[in-house]
Amino acid sequence: MFLLLILPILVSGYSAFTQNPYHYYRLHRYEGQLLYLESVRLGLGCTLVSATFTTLLNSFVPSSINFLNFEISLDIYRGINSLLKEIYHDSDSLTWIIIITVGSLVISKLYVFSAKIRLFIKAFDVTDALSLRRIKASIKRGKWLSRQDESLLSYNERAKIILMASVLKDSPIAGW
Question: How far apart are CA 135 and CA 2, in angstroms?
Answer without folding.
Answer: 58
